Amino acid sequence: MWRRIAVAVPYLAASALLVLPVLLPRHVPAMDLPSHLYNTWLVLLVRQGRAPGLELAPQWSNLLFDWWLEGLWRLGGPVLAERVAVAAAVLIFFWGGFAWVSAISRRAAWSSAPLLAMLAYGWCYHQGFFNYYLSCGFGFWALAAVWNPPPRAWAAVTALVLAVIAHPVGAAAAAGLAAFVVLIRDMDWRKRALAAATCCLALVVSGRIIQGSLPAQWEMLQGFHVVFATQLRPFGEKYNGFILGVAALWFFCLWVRAVREKSLLLREPAVWLAVILATAILAIPGAVQLPGTARPLHFVDFRLALFLSPVLQALAIAAQPRRMPFLGALMTVMAVPYFLFLASDYRYLNQAQDEFLRAAHQIPEGGRAVAAATGRPAGMNPLSHMLEKACIGRCFAYGNYVPSSNAFRLRSRPGSTLVLDDSAEVDRLAAGRFVVRSRDVPLYGVFLQSAQPFRLEVRSLHVGERVPLRSVPIPPDWF
User: Is the preceding omega at residue 234 within 30 degrees of 0, hence cis?
Assistant: First the structure.
């Protein structure tokens, strides 16, 4: 018994440390998280018959995190739901990555723990894509279950089912990679290379078909995910040192292994998995308009890159002697300033959320409001859904994009008075081109009054008035 407790202590201690960035801030800073919370509140109103113009549609995926939020909300309200759901997602993601890296490297991945913690609080987390985040976490568990013989089929299937409920893209990526691992297990390296080349060709052809048959956008910049650790840039330019430093360390370790092991390195299934993932990132369009949805699926390349990072890390740590964990020490040296940077940014984001809460209390109870303040550092807008969290229990965020997108279980009916029922109007609002119509009033606008300090003002909008956007660099860059 005592031996089991001693074995469990490092895992419990690591888990406790890992959830501190969720538990310590006043508000959990993740861009889409306020949207998840706000729409959970709307779902509860729909179930009570108090949300005219909104309805729930049957859906089989992209909803696991929202189910968690709804269940936890019923147990203890929105604060409990936010903290517990996000903390659980972080633990599933981190320990799934830990299990997968351990399976690839055939050693407990403690030297990779600092990097896995950085990935757990990386780009995907701070975008607030928690359904996709969960699908990756469960996908990591599935890949760990099938990596080494004998494969634990039931564990892999269970993890993949949960990944499917969370998000189809992450589940499809994990299932495809798991199938490839099982397929090549008994092959020599030449046959593995042929199988990988076939998969890469299929990905290139699929990318061309997607571009030719669906509205899609492909960019040369997608190649950055292959050569840099782009998941480690949640906010702005100050994180560039991390994406460069970790990538340099990975490729140095791979070079050491290539020199030392030569063709033996090609026997590693993880090498061919990295090749396939790099091809997918380069070949599949970064944004795709899926049939039946009103908004494109964005950041496909960023999403796929989340699977590449653990593979490269697992290949890299095999370059170090077992008794000289220099890679873990270097990753720890990088992780400490990374989380200090995040703590600094969280301070600014929490102040902004507090200001949105103050502004929401100036809106009449049950009123409709739109936000005209935005922040756009490096493709992420941390302010985009703060009004939604501030409106919970008090007002309605009229620009809420979820119901009109047809990509979530919450849907709007034509003529809804609680949200814009046309996705094109939501896009105009997000671009600063929305013009208030007679059907929109009474409507209140939340405007940026000053950037330093961050202050908002609220005023009533009039028919024919355009709602412009004013941007602010938040969190600020230091360079």
Answer: no
Residue 339: pLDDT over 50: yes
In degrees rounded to 5, what are phi and psi of residue 455? Answer: -135, 145
DSSP letter string, 137-200: HHHHHHHHHHHSSSP-HHHHHHHHHHHHHH-HHHHHHHHHHHHHHHHHTTS-HHHHHHHHHHHH
Q: Which helix (H) or strand (E) holds 434?
A: strand 434-435
Q: Which region among 54-63, 272-281, 324-333, 401-410 has the lowest average model confidence (pLDDT)?
A: 324-333
159: confidence class by pLDDT, cuts 50, 70, 90: very high
For 264-387, where are the E strands, in sequence order? 287-288, 368-371, 373-374
* Three-class secondary structure of residue 450 per DSSP: strand
Cα–Cα distance measured from residue 219 to residue 420, given in angstroms and rounded to the nearest whole number:
31
Cα–Cα–Cα angle for 112, 113, 118, rounded to 5 degrees: 100
The alpha carbon torsion through 224, 225, 226, 229 (nearest 10 deg) reads: 110
Task: Please give the structure tokens belonging to residue 421.
Answer: 């029922």
Q: Are 382 and 349 in contact (CB under 8 A)?
A: yes
Measured between alpha carbons, how far is 470 from 448 in angstroms, rounded to an integer? 6
Residue 463's SS3 state is: coil
Residues 267-317 have pLDDT tens digits of 899 999 999 999 999 999 999 998 888 888 999 999 999 999 999 999 998
135-148 residue pLDDT tens: 999 999 999 999 99
DSSP of 40-92, one letter per residue? HHHHHHHHTT--TTEEE---SSS-HHHHHHHHHHHHHHHHHHHHHHHHHHHHH
Q: With 90 as the cut, is the pLDDT of residue 321 above it?
A: no
Find the length of the chain.
479
Provide, rounded to the nearest whole percent, the portion of the chain with pLDDT above 70: 97
The pLDDT of residue 6 is above 80: no
SS3 content of the chain, % helix, strand, coil (to 5): 65, 10, 30
- State how far the Cα of 428 lies from the Cα of 431, in Å rounded to an integer: 5
**pLDDT value at position 87?**
98
**At a CB cut-off of 8 Å and minimum separation 6, what does 252 contact?**
none
Rounded distance between C-alpha atoms, residue 44 and residue 65, angstroms: 15
Q: What is the CA radius of gyration of the chain?
A: 23
